[in-house]
Design brief:
Layout (H helix, E strand, L loop, with lengths): L8 H17 L4 H20 L12 H17 L3 H24 L2 H4 L19 H4 L6 H31 L15 H20 L18 H5 L5 H9 L5 H32 L2 H10 L7 E4 L5 H4 L16 E2 L4 H11 L4 E7 L3 H7 L9 E4 L5 E7 L1
């Protein structure tokens, strides 16, 4: 939950803890608070009771926690109390930093929220792209730690500025006049926002990843900031509001944390997942097979592979044959013998293999002796599996 809600981790925790008091105090939002609490507690209890506990099973509970965090932020902005100040500094800020520090120390935790490769390799997951091969391209620790620091400072500032607002409100006399109604953005501001959106969209498409013939995507280091800009449609309204002096200092802290959250989402969706997907998915490897084969007669063989992507990305062509002898998936009992039997019935053919890197030389030893030298690697964009070809 802490990793999945980052950079809101601390405020989510504080909002959940303080929500029980709203039920006792007869808060006007008691119905919404009760709904969110029941939602979260039921989902958390179900996940706790079931035997299988993949990380992503807790995802349906997160919107309920977001509701409680939103109610907390609304209270801090409008009527801050001492418990908000103490909680922000002693609970929310430390939890935010610790969650971000954990992610910076071991970025695979981010991927574990989307897949379950930590099951076969407990504690470490499947191999991460090594710096010795790929340089610093996949070393995200420093960037993530920067997000953690920014989020922690914004969360702590929310508490400090809430204290100042609380003191100021207590000292200020009660005003008779009503506060002016908030102004709506002008037509020029909206037109400018739309123009900036379209411009960023066009530039973002031009700088998007290229995946010609199934090659693994490569993107400029900062290109992810452009699609991130598309995720802040409130930016023009925010700048206009601040320029007119309508935002209080405590609102600045909340907006800053919101901006950190938006940029963090862009960093995850448009950088980390795009760059790492070729190493956790078979999409690009299978696409490379289709681009290299000369005809459907050049079959793709999956040996000792349990990823299931080889079925999905080939539309099950490797296993859909009515004749079991023509299926090119070999795993389970006597898989080596069955594959060698297939070789003997398909001499003279050029065949492709999708195989784990650690099994490549074992695959070579299973080929007929006269064909072993023809086994070569075609695609090594994935750090876990090869696409190889051999002439039988």
């Amino acid at each position: 939950i802490g990793y999945g809600m980052f950079p809101w981790s601390g405020l989510v925790t504080l909002g959940g803890l303080l929500s029980f008091k709203k039920l006792r105090d007869g808060d006007p939002k008691r119905g919404l608070v009760g709904f969110a609490l029941v939602w979260f507690i039921v989902e958390f209890a179900v996940v706790s009771l079931v035997n299988t506990k993949f990380h992503h099973y807790i995802l349906p509970a997160l919107p309920a926690l977001a509701i409680l965090a939103g109610l907390l932020i609304d209270e801090i902005l409008t009527a801050p109390r001492r418990v908000h100040v103490i909680g922000s500094l002693l609970v929310a800020a430390p939890i935010t930093f610790l969650c971000g520090r954990d992610l910076a120390a071991f970025p695979p935790r981010l991927l574990w929220m989307f897949n379950y490769d930590y099951v076969n390799m407990p504690g470490t997951g499947r191999p991460w792209p090594l710096p010795s091969i790929y340089g610093t391209r996949y070393e995200y620790g420093t960037q993530i730690l920067l997000f953690a620091i920014c989020a922690t400072v914004a969360t702590a500032a929310l508490g400090v500025l809430a204290y100042r607002k609380m003191r100021k409100d207590a000292a200020a006399p009660v005003a008779d006049a009503e506060e002016p109604a908030p102004t709506r953005p002008s037509a020029n501001a909206l037109s400018g926002g739309i123009a900036l959106f379209l411009l960023a969209l066009g530039i973002g498409l031009l700088l998007g990843p290229k995946t010609v013939n199934g090659a693994a995507p490569t993107i400029p280091r900062l290109a992810w900031l452009l699609p991130t800009a598309l995720m802040v449609p409130f930016w023009v309204v925010f700048v206009r509001s601040v320029s007119r002096g309508r935002s209080s200092p405590v609102a600045w802290a909340a907006w800053t944390l919101a901006l950190v959250g938006v940029v963090w989402s862009g960093f995850l969706a448009d950088k980390i997942l795009v760059e790492l997907s070729p190493h956790w998915s078979q999409k690009h490897v299978i696409a490379s097979y289709y681009s290299h084969r000369k005809s459907p007669d050049e079959k793709l063989i999956a040996w000792q592979l349990y990823w299931r992507g080889e079925n999905f990305y080939t539309k099950n062509a490797i296993y859909s044959s009515v004749d079991p002898n023509e299926r090119t998936v070999f795993l389970g009992d006597h898989n080596a013998e069955k594959m060698q039997k297939w070789f003997a019935h398909h001499t003279g053919r050029r065949v492709f293999f999708v195989v784990e890197r650690t099994r490549f030389e074992a695959l070579r030893s299973l080929l007929p002796p006269q064909d072993r030298a023809s086994l070569t690697i075609v695609d090594e964009s994935n750090n876990k599996i090869y696409l190889a070809v051999a002439q039988l």
